[in-house]
């Protein structure tokens, strides 16, 4: 077969029926539905294909859903005291003055980094653990 015969332009049923002046009533499509006109058969096929496509798309969307939870609202040292930094850093070393303070701090390049991103309190960290377990 020539290449031109193998190439088919895809058109929708609506375009086919709008552009075709031929009366399709009473014309058989050659399938087992010989009593149904070609127009009815085309609309039926389009409807079934459309339904199947929607179902496939819905399944794909549901299976690809990924949920990401971001939480920032936990008890930080700023919630306990605005003066936690001057009281906690003595001679550049961290000193725990309250049992709700973490026993050690995460590594940062300087102590100034804790001003914008304070550590969580012991209770705040426990709340995060419990929330994570619940999810």
UniProtKB/TrEMBL annotation:
InterPro entries documented for this protein: His_PPase_superfam
| Tree of life domain | Eukaryota
Q: Where is the composition biased (Acidic residues)?
A: 17-26
> A GO molecular-function term, please?
phosphatase activity
Region Disordered: which residues?
A: 1-35
Give the Basic and acidic residues compositional bias ranges: 1-12
Name recorded for this polypeptide: Uncharacterized protein
Task: Write down the species.
Answer: Parascaris univalens
